[in-house]
User: What shape does this take?
Amino acid sequence: MAVRLGDIAPDFTADTTDGTINFHEWLGDSWGILFSHPKDFTPVCTTELGAFAKRKGEFDKRDTKIIGLSVDPIESHQGWKKDIEETQGAALNFPLIGDPDRKVADLYDMIHPNANDTLTVRSVFIIGPDKKVKLTLTYPASTGRNVDEILRVLDSLQLTADYSVATPVNWTDGEDVIIVPAVSDEDAKQRFPKGWKALKPYLRVTPQPNR
Ligand code: BEZ
Assistant: This one.
């Protein structure tokens, strides 16, 4: 069964490169990102893990824990870690789940048999402090993910969790946002004291409220 937006992220206990974890306990009150890798010792995954490791400080600043998964065992991950550090110039600084029996991969529907019946696709799940799934992304094995895009959507999710706004196309942190249609002009006066520009009655643009 697919994991959908608004669902409680399925909980699990699994071995990782940092020891055994219970997922919900490990998340605590933080935001979390779970992402899958098709296989150990594969080139694109190696670059992705190095890139996430280099940017970990940016996830920390957003109170967000990151955790990877690959369906190979931990012993294999330990060997792969050395290659990641050697080739990407960054040591793995977050846990990588070993999932040889595909328990977690199946729970999160990360294997899409019509694409490949043994490798996972490149899934991304962003989970809020309430343990609900806020975003899902699915890439094929042949396409590496974009860390900037994941940080960008995280900024949008965290902003829109706190304010009655939505973020427009290609928005990045600090840019103007849109007042959601459910907020009346009367309400908007209280909520958005910096004012707004109404391009249409339904398209009201306001400065980012937490800046
Ligand atoms: C990779 O990570 O490079 C990869 C993994 C599986 C299939 C194709 C590429």
Summary: The longest helix spans residues 147-162. The longest strand covers residues 31-37. Residues 38-39, 42-45, 119, 141-142 surround benzoic acid (CB under 6 Å). The two ends are 40 Å apart (CA to CA).
